[in-house]
Design a protein that fits this description.
Layout (H helix, E strand, L loop, with lengths): L12 H40 L4 E8 L13 H18 L8 E7 L10 H7 L1 E8 L1 H9 L5
Parallel strand pairs: 1-2
Antiparallel strand pairs: 1-3
């Protein structure tokens, strides 16, 4: 049945089963993603408590991509993607876990510091990562160097 604006189609039971199987697979993938997100958020919460308890520490959030090119309406290239990811984690640390923004440096590294150099899918996956480094406040560290207190 069809009119100018609406098209109705019939489908076989095989197609319905196929769609159900695809939905089940997507549910499994979403469940795995949600589980990973909960684990990541728990880890960020634990680290943030440590960071918030030590005002002499700063945080470097580095985001890395693989070397597969990307271009969408909202993302110009891998550099843009990695900068947005680093900023998203920075905002999460600030809004959800109370880390002061003046203690966080967000750094988009793009594809230029890979962990793995071959283009296989497992290696590309390991290159898509966020690294969070807890470090001393660099201004205080350099002042210590200037004053000759570090040898």
């Amino acid at each position: 049945m069809q009119d100018e604006y609406v098209t109705f189609k019939t489908t076989s039971r095989d197609n319905v089963s196929k769609v159900k199987d695809e939905l089940k697979e997507r549910d499994k993938q979403l469940s795995a993603y949600e589980s990973a997100t909960k684990t990541r958020n728990k880890e960020l919460e634990i680290r943030s408590k440590h960071i918030n308890g030590h005002p002499d520490l700063d945080i470097l959030v580095e985001s890395h991509t693989d070397n597969s090119s990307i271009s969408t309406d909202g993302i110009k290239d891998n550099w843009d993607l990695s900068a947005k990811r680093a900023t998203a984690i920075t905002r999460l640390l600030q809004t959800r876990f109370g880390v002061q923004l003046d203690r966080i440096l967000a750094d988009g590294r793009s594809e230029y510091t890979p962990k793995e150099y071959t283009g296989t899918e497992p290696n590309k996956k390991s290159n898509r990562r966020i690294e969070i480094t807890i470090m001393p406040k660099l201004d205080q560290f350099f002042q210590t160097l200037i004053n000759g207190q570090v040898k």
